[in-house]
Structure formats: structure tokens, C-alpha cells
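Submission sheet (multi-component)
Chains listed below:
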Amino acid sequence: MTELPQPIVGHLGATVAGPRNPEVEAQNPDILTPPVTDNGGIPNLKFPFAMAHNRLEDGGWAREVTLRECPTLKELAIVNMRLGPGVVRELHWHKEGEWAYVTAGRVRFYLVDEHRGTLVEDLEVGDLWFAPPGVPHAIQGLEEGTEFVLIFNDGNFSENETLLVTELFAHMPREVLAKNFGVDESAFDGIPASEKYIFRLPVPGPIEEARAELGAASMTSEYVFRGADVAETKWNGGATKIIDSKTFKATPMAFLMIELEPGGMREIHWHPDADEIQYYLSGSARMTVFNAVSSARTFDYVAGDVGYVPKNLAHYIENTGTETMRVINVFSKGDYRDVSLNNWLALTPSALVQGHLDVGDTLMKALRQGPGSVVKG
Ligand code: MN
Ligand code: MN
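Outcome: structure written.
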């Protein structure tokens, strides 16, 4: 039997008598044995999708991390959804904006906006969409099925409380439906009594057929964005990609993809006006979050975990594994902004910096040399 790690740092700590949960402890080494710099009462900023209730439906599933799962998620909530070939997330709308990122397969996205603009687009891994509040839409898996995350700009959002076309029909008086559409009431004899939510349909035909039926005049593509249309920025130890409202005009939520090589680190920074939600795609990472007064806590993440950072709290992300770490960050504002600790100090007179921190010339020289070994935003 291998010996379990013990929470001991020098004279601090003691062995755990037990009972223990070694698998969970192994995924959270900085919770079991925090760095001695951790202090105070930072609330929980991690929730694995593996611990989120999964709603199983006809040919797909959906699970969510909202402020019910993790009370720090004030401004943003996240949903992870899988749809098999042809499987539909039914026509619906909601009060919050929906930002999406495709993580597997291919998907057809449908939307009709208030200007009678209609959108039918086939999207693949790395592509984005945004459905504004109140704007109805539907999602359908193509031949290979699909998986994606949806991020909503209100932590109180629930995927189980959206406004559905089936329920709208079920809850209008039949004579009103008949009058509204100018047909006989008997036209509605077969409508479902309750929601369909996620259900199987045949894989749809070529996209040109769907577009031809709707007419090219009203077609829009302003609510989707191809990830491949923005190039990565290379840094020492990794790469980043930003897609925000400067390029994807329809989105009020900015996106930052971060890739870190083993040992690579996204520099210490904070976001002056936006909360950040994180979805880890591969590898393993740690992050320390700093807040007033004298508070810091370090969290560990692996692929499939959700992280969160409230606005203005300083943080970094470090690859702690032996493979490439990939994470997406989504922000509650459309215009991406961060404040870099390195930039701040590099642009402050050295006598002032040295007077505060009692550091020597080595740090000041490193600051003046530019980004160095960290990944910037
Ligand atoms: Mn939706
Ligand atoms: Mn950040």
C-alpha cells in the first residue's frame, strides 16, 4: 500500500487519523496541504462537472454548475450538454444571454431574432455562438453528435427553467391558438402535453436545403463566430486566443483560451470589470486567488472542472502536470480587460517599487525586459 500524503509543512500540521477519501485528496493537494501563504476566508472557487447532477434525456444529457452548486457564481453559470446524432435541444428562449463553445463533434444552431433575421449554421470544435436574452433558438447534433458548454450571464440561471415552445403551446387556450394561426382547433389535437426538452429526430439534411426553404433574404450569421478566424498569440510557455466584442460584435461576454506547456504559467493578473468562469479542457492546473484582507486560497483543477474568479481578485494559472493544459475563460463583460502585475510594476518608478517591497535590482531589471517566462492575456 502506498503511503498517503500527510498535511505537514515543517512544524505545521499533523497526520490524518482518518477516515479519508484518498482519490479526492489526490486531486486537491493544495486544499489538503495549502501553501503557507494561503490565509483567511476565500470561498470555494471550484466545482467539477463530475459532481453536478446529470439530467438524462432521450438521446442526450445536460448538467449545470450554477450558484446552487457553487454560491460564488454570482454573474455567470455554466451548462455542459451532449446531443447524439440528430438529437435536438428544443426550440426555446430565456431571460439571460447564452454564450456557447463547441468541444466535440458538429452541431447545427438555429436562431430567429426580433428583426426576422434567421440563422442556420453548422459549427465545429472551437466555434462559438451567442443567443441574446429573449431570442429563440434550437440546437441539433449532426452525424457524429456533439458536446458543448453554454455560459449564461447570471449565476442564478437554470437550464431546467427555460421558456419552451412545447410548453407555450400546451398552456395557451386552444381557441386562442386557432385564432392566432388562423386554423381550426383540431390542428392542435396532437401537441405534446408537456416539454420535450431533449429528444431524437433524424439527422438533418444538407444546410443548403434548410436555408433554401427559409429564403436567403432574411439570413444572418451575426450570432456565430468561427474560432479558426482568430489566430493564437504565442508566449514563452504557452499560447492564448481572445474572441471578444471587438471581433464577435454580438457577444457581451469575452472569451480567452489559454494553453500552457508543462511548467508554463499564466501571469498574476486581475480583471477590473468582469467575473471569470473557467472550464478546464485538458491537463491539470493550480490557481491561487488573493483578496483583501490578507486572504488567499489555492485550488487545483483537472479536465472537466469549473473554476471561478470574482472581479478584481488577483490570480494566476499554472500547469502542474506533464501534458499541455488547456482552459477556456469566459467573462461577464464583452470587452476583454486585465491588469497585469508585471506591467503595473514595470511602469512604476523603481525607487517607489523598491521602497514598498524591499527588492533588489534583479526584479526591476527583469520587469524592464518585458513578458519573460509568463503567458499574458
Ligand atoms: Mn438556450
Ligand atoms: Mn483571469
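Remark: The domain at 230-376 is CATH 2.60.120.10 (Jelly Rolls).
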